[in-house]
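INFO batch 0412 | record 1 of 1 | parsing
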Amino acid sequence: MLPIIWLPRSVQLSLEASSTALLQPTEGRKVDFSRPLGEAALVSPDSISWRIFKNPIALLVGGIAAVILELAEPAVRTGVWKHSTFVADPMGRLRRTGLAAMVTVYGARSIAQPMIESVVRLHARVTGETPAGERFSATDVRLLSWVHATASFGFGQAYSRYVSALSSRDFDALYLEGAPASRLYGALDAPRSGVELTALFDSMKGRLEPSDIIFQFLGIMRSTPTFPMPLRWMQPIVVRAAVELIPSWIRDCLGLTASHGLRPQEKVLMRMAGAVADRIVLPESPPAQSCRRLGLPRAYLYG
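INFO prediction complete | emitting tokens
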């Protein structure tokens, strides 16, 4: 196991500023994960979820993989591409999505539950029709369950592949831990085990389809500045790492050839980056703030 990494103050502040820029709103009130003191989150601090979500490599790679899978479903794709701000303001959409994920896992219940309720109200206003003429609603349990399943799959697989290998029991725990929040979002049929997730993925054969929008999304993720400037050269590699996580039959269906995945040396680089990122303690990051809220050591998740 690698030792905990305590960065020089200047480097720590720079990384925390980048994290805040990626996760917190540019206007309005920022989320304080250190308050209210003592208040529990929707997920326990000894959970596999808290362990995974503290790692920025797992979050970025897993989040991109999840969106690829979401965009493969025609109704979800239409809802995301035609009824959200992703195309016009990709950074804003990424910021809101990332913050929602962190609040769901780490935020105090009195903050997380109202946020989830606001997301549900937004979804209630999203209805439309796919290019094939199929009507859909963003409150459809089937669609919501697919979105939440792809997120759990993406984050878990990214952590296991590029940070530290997870067992089948770990994956089962991850999916079960996410069930209460999934229900709050309306994803009533989200998988609660690896077996259920596999069954859901198998049921999507014939439903998932290729689209130019998926390749537009990958282009946006390669070019939209999300990393600090010194690390921006890694963005295309992170996108390829996400493609690598997609099950082979889905990659074939979507036209994601081997050229869209990682080169051998990049696989080594991603594993190194994920392992190092898992040992860096940022005292003002949401995971560390949340530990402080609950009276836990700031390095609790890194020991």
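INFO post-check: DSSP finds 15 helices and two strands in the chain.
INFO record closed
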